Structures are given as structure tokens and as C-alpha cells.
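ok so i was messing around last nite and threw this chain in just to see what happens. nothing serious, just curious
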Amino acid sequence: HLLLQGARVDTKTVDGWEPLHSACCWNNVDCISMLVSNGANINATTKGGQTPLHLVCASSHNSPALQLFLTHPDAEKMPVNVSGDTPQMIATRTGKYYPIFEMIEPCLNDI
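result:
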């Protein structure tokens, strides 16, 4: 893969997207895991303030990735993007993962 050839995990597009953002958008859990284990910033933000967790919560097919982010010790659980949305708010609008946030909300600061 590209990492073996020296590709950087923190390369950004003009919009501030890093490879981790793209992996989250495309629901590629294997790629997400590989990028995080190779030093990708799990809290990287785009110019719009979107973190990888925001993008995972916008997907209705990314439960394993959501679990990875919510259990990762360095992941910020309630970042706010430039629209004022937290991942939980996005999950509420997409519907599918909102109950997960309700269950873990009391202990988010302890995770």
C-alpha cells in the first residue's frame, strides 16, 4: 500500500481533508484502522470543522468505525464543526446511530 512507499497520513486537500476523512466517508474500516495505527490524527479537522467522527456519524453503514472512534482513548467525542454540529447531532439526523450516543452519553468524558 501507499504507506509502505512513504505516503504521509496527514496530507491535506485544499478543503483540509486528510486520508482518514476520505476513509470515513467511504466507510472503509480497514483503511481507517490502518491510518490510525500509522499515526493519523483521529481528531483532524477539515476547513468546515468536520472530524472523522462527524463523517462516520453521517453514514448509515459505518457501525464498526463508529465503535472504533467512540472507544479510542484520543478521540474527541463531542467536537463542534463550523455549523455548530456535534457528531451526536449528525447521528440524530441520520437516525441509525443516535441510540448509541444516548447509551454512552453519561460516560463520554470517561472514555
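not much to say yet. The chain has one domain: 2-110.
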